[in-house]
Amino acid sequence: MRPKPASTNTPEHPNEPASRAFSVAGHLLTAPKAVPGLHLVSTPIGNLGDITLRALETLAGVDIVACEDTRITRRLTERYGIAALLKPYHEHNAALARPKILERLAQGASIALVSDAGTPLISDPGFKLVREVCAAGHAVIALPGPSSVLAALAVAALPTDRFFFEGFLPPKETARRARIAELARIDATLVMFESGNRVQNTLRDLADAMGERDAAICRELTKLHEEVRRASLSELARTADALETRGEFVLVIGAPARASVMAQHDLDDLLRSALQRDSVKDAVAHAVEASGRPRREIYARALELARQSHAGNGDGQD
Q1: pTM over 0.70
Q2: Alpha-carbon span 36 to 39, nearest angstrom
Q3: Residue 42 and which of 123, 252, 294, 306 are 20 to 30 A apart at CA?
């Protein structure tokens, strides 16, 4: 039987739990009182069994747990029999909540900051709080643990020696495509989050800009319906309509092959030659395959060179 969290309060602070107990595999343990300061606690991204012992001790030992959604964090604390005092801290109340947290820290309190899932501050609120806590001279303690970014990198079967984390792409199509064009120039494995209602369109935009790069779609990592698809971006885009869109997505995209990326002057020579005999569409298709550069970039350059050629021919006939 899972132990119920204690609900009694300390006389000194009537809103704080008296019990610092937690339960692991049926064993009831007692956590030491956490040291004063802000504790950044990583929590599971899906499977509640991925919590660390140190994280449990801290959640049971702090005075307050600041969390994005108290309902989500309560599922975790109840699972392990922790009588934590949960206080909301999210993007909508942060400006009002930060001064109260700083005041409690100044009084010697220990406070844990958690996100709904994974490591705090990674595409979650918390940066301004950490900055102000540091500026006020209070301790900030990091508790490493689950991260969907690192989990996706680990299972994607793509190079991990250098990676760039983008977070969420812009939701609007024009802004998203513009940002993808910028990302295409980064010589590193790319990691990004996406929502289920946009992932199909995002895959098509990524394929338009990055072509045949190897990639992986990681859905519902560590959860019951975890799924990882590995293929080229173009293949993933072609099959996007069959993708299950429910759940959380992490997209991982391999870097362009360094040796196969053609220099700009060589690309221009290739396009000029191809445009003399082929349509812009065919010239671009040939250049994408031969150069290793993004299709969108090559298409824009082909149009520019075609305009220059037509302008030059016109000048010669006047």
Answers
A1: yes
A2: 9
A3: 252
